[in-house]
């Protein structure tokens, strides 16, 4: 069994959906996970925002905005009148549902139900197209098997339910399902957070003991720097699970940060491929990746807040850090980077919903300074620790910038640097020129 996942751009037009069908029909058995048509989830988020703001009229207008896009998509994808009718009926049902909520009492439960509609639409359209083409495929609802508790996938239950669902379709070897959506412990519709379809594919891969998970997107693999901000980036041939996890966590948007975990549990390779350029090798993420490259890639994450706590009570004392960490634990706020001196500790967070309460509690421990609008730039590669020249090259490359923190040695494959966000693009470009010169590649 193989698991393929196609992202928003890959299903974003009729032409692209047809290309997806060319990639999935035939060959080995597959479970194909689809995201929503590109832009759809953002629009659904906008509709929920309008309901929360008490503006039902705006919500209804935003629903109507879907119409031209989906009319075109359906007209170009499906040729038979009966399948067009089915698709149009589906859309009318969805428009009616999306407009059916009232602003009074609109809650996160309804919000999650709305967010789920994008994947429900894209998968149904794909299934209608495959049926029209005479392909023997089955649409399996993710809400029937993808179960979470406290936001965590329940692997045993998913494995059992998925096997039951697959067994209902004897003789079928192509299954289409929704990424991103799930049901939670309260039997409510929920999701795996934005970009979560990659994670769905990896969870399904682990639960179906897949031979490989393939993430098909709009670029030919993990590049050696962020292609949105740096010119001349190129695809990396392979990454270890740990390298890929670091890159995804620190901003490489191509992969949802949790994708690697389920695949790693079962040693399943994850291959990143380009839907529009399937012949390109892409990137393989797996247990081993031996290349001579000490630096595999560079990524950056915005929206970081740096907090410094200074206290003379820290001098020659123990237990101070425990008290600091306890505060972050109380507010369920993960810490990303940390550096300490005898009398001060600096750390960073990117979850800021409880920032004011955290700061108030920290002020009980010492003087607190806060820097907002920071970015973590992260250099990732297995050989970073062995090659002692790299850390000096990283700091030299950035010597014109105001570096706020550096973290080196926490993991064997990561150097993280905290800088003001306004310098992020410059930092990515400076590191690119310094680290990918002839002596390293
Ligand atoms: N290091 C990187 N390598 C490749 N792509 C990256 C990297 N960092 C950011 N990206 C961006 O990730 C995008 C693909 O991810 P995403 O938009 O989530 O795709 P999908 O909608 O298919 O899930 C690319 O178009 C690229 O701009
Ligand atoms: N549609 C969801 C889930 C997802 O993973 O999308 P994509 O694969 O296009 O990043 C989102 O936009 O967050």
From TrEMBL:
One of its GO terms (biological process) is threonine biosynthetic process. Substrate binds at residues 41, 119. Keywords: Amino-acid biosynthesis, ATP-binding, Kinase, Nucleotide-binding, Transferase. GO terms for cellular component: cytosol. Pfam families: AA_kinase, ACT_9. The keyword Transferase applies. Residues 2-274 form the Aspartate/glutamate/uridylate kinase domain. One of its GO terms (molecular function) is aspartate kinase activity. PROSITE patterns: ASPARTOKINASE. CDD domains: AAK_AK-HSDH-like (cd04243). Gene3D superfamilies: 3.30.70.260, Acetylglutamate kinase-like, Aspartokinase, catalytic domain. Its EC number is 2.7.2.4. InterPro entries: AceGlu_kinase-like_sf (IPR036393), ACT-like_dom_sf (IPR045865), ACT_Aspartokinase (IPR054352), Asp/Glu/Uridylate_kinase (IPR001048), Asp_kin_monofn (IPR005260), Asp_kinase (IPR001341), AsparK_Bifunc_asparK/hSer_DH (IPR042199), Aspartate_kinase_CS (IPR018042). It catalyses: L-aspartate + ATP = 4-phospho-L-aspartate + ADP. Residues 377-435 form the Aspartokinase ACT domain. Coiled coil: none annotated. Pathway: Amino-acid biosynthesis; L-threonine biosynthesis; L-threonine from L-aspartate: step 1/5; Amino-acid biosynthesis; L-methionine biosynthesis via de novo pathway; L-homoserine from L-aspartate: step 1/3; Amino-acid biosynthesis; L-lysine biosynthesis via DAP pathway; (S)-tetrahydrodipicolinate from L-aspartate: step 1/4. It comes from the Bacteria. The keyword Nucleus does not apply. ATP binds at residues 5-8, 217-218, 228. Belongs to the aspartokinase family. This is Aspartokinase.
């Amino acid at each position: 069994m193989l698991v393929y996942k196609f992202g928003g751009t890959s299903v974003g037009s009729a032409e692209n959906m047809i290309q997806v069908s060319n990639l999935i029909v035939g060959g080995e058995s597959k479970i194909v996970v689809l995201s929503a048509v590109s832009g759809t989830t953002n629009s659904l988020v906008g509709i929920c925002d309008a309901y929360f703001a008490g503006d039902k009229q705006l919500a209804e207008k935003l629903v109507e905005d879907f119409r031209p896009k989906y009319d075109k998509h359906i007209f170009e994808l499906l040729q038979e009148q009966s399948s067009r009718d089915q698709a149009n009926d589906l859309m009318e049902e969805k428009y009616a549902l999306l407009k059916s909520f009232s602003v009074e009492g609109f809650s996160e439960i309804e919000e999650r139900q709305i967010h789920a509609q994008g994947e429900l639409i894209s998968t149904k359209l794909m299934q209608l197209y495959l049926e029209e083409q005479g392909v023997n495929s089955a649409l399996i609802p993710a809400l029937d098997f993808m179960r979470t508790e406290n936001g965590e996938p329940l692997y045993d239950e998913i494995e059992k339910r998925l096997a039951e669902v697959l067994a209902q379709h004897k003789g079928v070897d192509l299954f289409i399902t929704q990424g991103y959506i799930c049901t939670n412990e309260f039997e409510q519709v929920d999701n795996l957070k934005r970009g979560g379809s990659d994670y769905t594919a990896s969870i399904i891969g682990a639960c179906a003991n897949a031979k490989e998970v393939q993430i098909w997107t709009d670029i030919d693999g993990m590049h050696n720097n962020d292609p949105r901000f740096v010119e001349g980036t190129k695809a990396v041939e392979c990454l270890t699970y740990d390298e890929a996890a670091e890159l995804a966590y620190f901003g490489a948007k191509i992969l949802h940060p949790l994708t690697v975990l389920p695949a790693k549990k079962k040693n399943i390779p994850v291959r990143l491929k380009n839907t529009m350029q399937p012949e390109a090798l892409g990137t393989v993420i797996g247990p081993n990746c031996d290349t001579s490259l000490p630096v595999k890639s560079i990524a950056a994450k915005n929206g970081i807040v740096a907090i410094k706590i200074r206290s003379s009570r820290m001098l020659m004392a123990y237990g101070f850090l425990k008290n600091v960490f306890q505060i972050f634990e109380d507010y369920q706020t993960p810490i990303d980077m940390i550096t300490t001196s005898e009398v001060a500790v600096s750390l960073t967070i990117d979850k800021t919903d409880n920032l004011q309460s955290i700061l108030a509690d920290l002020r009980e421990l010492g003087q607190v300074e806060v820097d907002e609008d920071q970015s973590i730039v992260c250099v990732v590669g297995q050989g970073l620790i062995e090659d002692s020249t790299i850390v000096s090259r990283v700091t030299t490359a950035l010597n014109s910038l105001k570096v706020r923190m550096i973290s080196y040695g926490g993991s064997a494959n990561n150097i993280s640097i905290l800088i003001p966000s306004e310098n992020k693009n410059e930092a990515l470009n400076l590191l690119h020129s310094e680290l990918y010169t002839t002596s390293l590649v």
